[in-house]
Amino acid sequence: MRLAWFRAAPPDSGALLDRTAPLIEMLARTHDIEIVTATDAHDFVWKHNRRPGGVCVYEPGTSPDHLFIWPYLLHYPGLVLLHGAVMRDIRAWAGSRLVVAFDAAVARSLEEEHTGARIRHVPPGVPAGNSRPPAPASELRVGLIDPSRREAVERAARRARNRGAAVRVLDAPDEADVIVALEWPPAAGPPAAALHAMAWGRPAIVLEVEATAGWPALDPQNWQPRGFSTAAPIAVSIDPRDEEHSLMLAFERLAADPSLRSALGAAGLAWWRAHATIEHAAAGWEAILREAATLDSASPQPVADGSESARRILEDFGVEVDFLRAL
Length: 327
Fold this sequence. Notes:
Blueprint: E1 2-6, H1 21-27, E2 32-36, H2 42-50, E3 55-58, H3 69-75, E4 78-82, H4 90-94, E5 96-101, H5 104-113, E6 119-121, E7 140-144, H6 150-162, E8 167-170, E9 178-181, H7 192-199, E10 204-207, E11 217-219, E12 224-225, E13 235-238, H8 243-256, H9 258-275, H10 278-293, H11 308-315
Parallel strand pairs: 1-2, 1-3, 3-4, 4-5, 5-6, 7-8, 7-9, 9-10, 10-13, 11-13
Antiparallel strand pairs: 11-12
């Protein structure tokens, strides 16, 4: 199948936070994929007219680098991939064949918000990594994949050291004993850094948000499992409202308890093998692509524009806001 994949930048499999780069690499083994960025998007129109067909895949976002995507999405409906909750944008529903979320809970909530829209869930996936634990050390080595959270992590590590814990933040996450995955704002799916941690067999520290709430995890406030799951915990999950303090508590306990680190890493690795390998993701996408190729554009019924409540309130005062009806 021919795919035109619209994204802000070419995929980089070496960038651990590029959650679709490994997927694109895997799908390229069986599909003809053309990456379309702002630099070469103007060529898409004449290429499409010369050779119509195939499926367009869109990765929209909120940064200026993504703005070029919207006109193509509206004129060449395709498959829209939601990376962030902020992308629950009406334009995505109006011009899509299918909307894809990485998390099942997110997909369900979107179906409730947008009745009739075609929402699908595909599992996330990351490639295998080196699951051999690093050599033992006298300190807890903390790996950070997302540099935007370094300041918060350093503050928490400093507070843990002030309380007697030996903690050091590394620039090389693959050499770490534990991986911090405090993705903010939350994505519409599991944090990529946490999935890499599991694939490496290392404990992950995540925020308790929509996409991670279903994971069996430990609360560092009391070191009890969150929720009602009886499965082995695969991560430490902290409350975003208490981020720095909870992170300090996590560092203290994990620095003092190598057996807990080992158990979390082993459970996370088993969960990744069962749910989040790149092969799982590719299999899900194969089914989604086949479905998208058979569908026409747009959701089966129009998506509400959010003005219904305002109309109902104004009706009580005899006020009409739809001035175009008189024309």
